[in-house]
User: Fold this.
Amino acid sequence: MKVIEHYDRATEPLISFEIIPPKRGGSVQAVFESLDKVIEKVHPPFIDVTYHAAEAYVEEQQDGSLKRVVRRKRPGTIGLCAAILHRYGIDPVPHLICEGFTKEESEDALIELNYLGIHNVLAIRGDNTGNQVSLNLNGTANKYAIDLVKQIKKMNRGTYIEDIINAEPTNFCVGVAGYPEKHFEAPNIDWDIKRLKDKLDAGADYVVTQMFFNNKAYFDFVEKCREHGIKAPIVPGLKILTTPSHLKTLPKYFHLNIPDELTAEVDAYPERTRDIGVEWARQQTLELIEGGAPGIHFYIMGDPQPALDVIDFVKRK
Ligand code: FAD
Assistant:
């Protein structure tokens, strides 16, 4: 089923999850063990799997020379999605990114997904961290997420890159990213929301937000989105703070603010960070649901337990 149909038919807020594929050479068993736990407790309507661009490294060789090596650290998104569908019968949502992919490669990935019976994708730009190999230079890659959304929607109308007579239309539901605290490159929040509206006008079906720790940012964002004419579901993405190092790494990599109250508590009791983070997320989840959020999308990455602790508590309320 399509993600948008899950939201349209839902009679209560939907709980969904996002995971990352293992590092190259890693075992997929650990991912299944973690999903087994999630599915036993929650049976989510869909599970997102992130995509990772290839990165370029300089490696020193035995003779002391330097060699440029291009490697994707976490391959396997499509395979993992197929495994989720067949093992659990749950709709997987692969992320597809612009960064590091030619339009032909994106089309090929979408053809693979279509054949696998996977009809949901989250269309994302990706980031060039400086290490990544950028293919944007000669226009062979999609530049912004909106360009990928347009490509997918064209395929849904039977239009592929090459002119193909009687090409079979695909049938993808497309999610896109939104930023309650503004995307770090956008000059201001209104400008960023206009770009989000462009993605929806291009055919995207729903929005999942970047993680945030202050619900006011989400509620204000939703209000502004509605003022800009965005009608699609805007699903809050939540990450649970579990280690003191998150106070630095989350703002650094995700460009978000962590409220004073939360930082002060973690600073005072660093050994209790996981409990503090879980309690914070419990209150956030309750308030978001009471405030009318269509669901909660938990970024669990490798470890589902903190999110399951939050869900247990919320279910008992
Ligand atoms: P876009 O929508 O393309 O926006 C990027 C920036 O460009 C914004 O500032 C926007 O305002 C601006 N912009 C948009 N259109 C235009 C235009 N036409 N002209 C000028 N400026 C424009 N990264 C991964 O590598 N893999 C993942 O699996 C992944 N999953 C994610 C899931 C979610 C829910 C979120 C929130 C983020 C995810 N990311 C992932 C991170 C994402 O790649 C970065 O946040 C990236 O910087 C922006 O992606 P986007 O799709 O929002 O980009």
